[in-house]
Design goal:
The protein is of the alpha/beta class and 358 residues long. Helix content is 25%, strand content 25%. It is built from eleven helices and 18 strands. The strands form three sheets. Strands 3, 5, 6, 9, 10, 17 and 18 form a seven-stranded mixed β-sheet that branches. A six-stranded parallel β-sheet has the order 13-12-11-14-15-16, sandwiched between helices. It has a five-stranded mixed β-sheet with strand order 7-2-1-4-8, with no helix packed on it. Strand 15, helix 9 and strand 16 form a beta-alpha-beta unit. Helix 4 packs across helix 5. 49% of the residues are buried. Bound molecules: zinc ion (ZN) (2 copies).
Length: 358
């Protein structure tokens, strides 16, 4: 089958023929219908993370079960969304209501399959979903209703779960609270949508690119603000001089975390959703940390339980109370995925989604 493979750090991803093993006990083969290209896929290539290569990219996808290994429950043909952090349900974190921190997911992944020349092949976050097919443990597949638009359903597995969960689960935004979201990729736009659904106001969307304005307003923002030196003033002008109750940092850089900190009110909360680098240090003064009384915390996978929340979001998508069309900048075929990857790297659009023929 064909997959988007990267051969090493800073190498250009390319479509290659690869071989996957047949599903073993407890595993499924899933035929992919649509897979989003996420910033974490860029992190696999640009040195932010150090994965093993060659690597199949992709971890945000929907598809249908094509083959069920021994001892599985799901039927062939079942529509699913893939979960890149399937919880073991038995480690300390799982037993204490934090399945998103499951320690079973921290083990380095073994290769799965091989390239055409017989080199062992690695798959992103146990999935490798920018491919015609994946072979995954059954608990990495969450069933969803049939008939959802695949290019929107795919986003439930990463951007939407992450952005929604940050607002709902991590920060617990309440109606009437003010929100700023910095960084308007797929996750940031999903956070805007969730803030709107939570009844937050105002909802201030912030990005360096003026071209994100229309996207932000369509996703649920009440205002769009450019990230420039006037930002703090503009935010205070819209929050009676205090700053926002909640800021969401969806970039993953110390500089934007610091910006989020400064535009949050005393006693407010900063939620870091973006994944940054190990050498990018955040500096805050001890006096500032004490005096501002702000909370700084991170949101890993939206502090969510995908087994419960993906079906909820899928149901909302089905009954049209959730509209993810603003998040999808366009759909492309697998052969155009390398180009779409470049567009994401340049910050163009929201989510580019690779779709596969039915
Ligand atoms: Zn992702
Ligand atoms: Zn666990």
């Amino acid at each position: 089958m064909r997959a988007l493979v990267v051969r090493g750090r800073d190498a250009a991803p390319a479509v290659e023929e690869v071989r996957l093993p047949a599903p073993g006990p407890g595993e499924l083969r899933v035929r992919i219908r649509a897979a989003g290209i996420c910033h974490s896929d860029l992190a696999m290539v640009n040195g932010t993370l150090a994965p093993a290569y060659p690597l199949v990219l992709g971890h945000e996808a929907t598809g249908v079960v094509a083959e069920a290994g021994p001892g599985t429950r799901l039927a062939v043909g079942a529509p699913v969304v893939l979960n890149w952090a399937p919880a073991c349900r038995s480690c300390w974190h799982c037993r204490h209501g934090e399945p998103w921190l499951c320690t079973a997911n921290t083990a380095p992944a073994a290769p799965r399959g091989e390239t055409a020349d017989g080199t062992p092949l690695h798959v992103t976050l146990g999935l490798g979903a920018l491919a015609e097919e994946v072979v995954v443990p059954e608990h990495a597949a969450v069933t969803i209703p049939a008939g959802l638009p695949p290019e929107q359903a795919a986003l439930l597995g990463c951007a939407v779960l992450t952005g929604t969960g940050a607002v709902r689960n991590t920060a617990r935004v309440a109606a009437g609270e003010s929100v700023a979201v910095i960084g308007l990729g797929g996750v940031g736009l999903a956070a805007l949508t969730a803030a709107r659904r939570a009844g937050a106001a105002p909802i201030l969307a912030v990005d360096v690119a003026a071209a994100k304005r229309d996207l932000a307003l369509a996703a649920g923002a009440t205002d769009f603000l450019l990230a420039d030196d006037r930002l703090s003033k503009e935010i205070r002008a819209r929050t009676e001089g205090r700053g926002v109750d909640h800021a969401f940092e969806c970039v993953g850089r110390a500089a934007t975390i610091r910006a989020a900190w400064r535009l949050t009110r005393r006693g407010g909360a900063v939620t870091v959703v973006g994944m940054g680098g190990n050498d990018d240090l955040l500096t805050l003064s001890a006096l500032d940390v004490f005096h501002s009384a702000r909370t700084l915390r991170s949101s890993v996978y939206g502090s969510s339980d995908p087994d419960r929340e993906v079906p909820e979001l899928a149901t909302a998508l089905a009954d049209r109370t959730l509209d993810l069309r603003p998040l999808v900048s366009g759909t492309v075929g697998l052969d155009e995925a390398p180009d779409a990857f470049g567009r994401l790297a340049r910050g163009e659009g929201a989510r580019w989604v690779v779709t596969f023929p039915d």
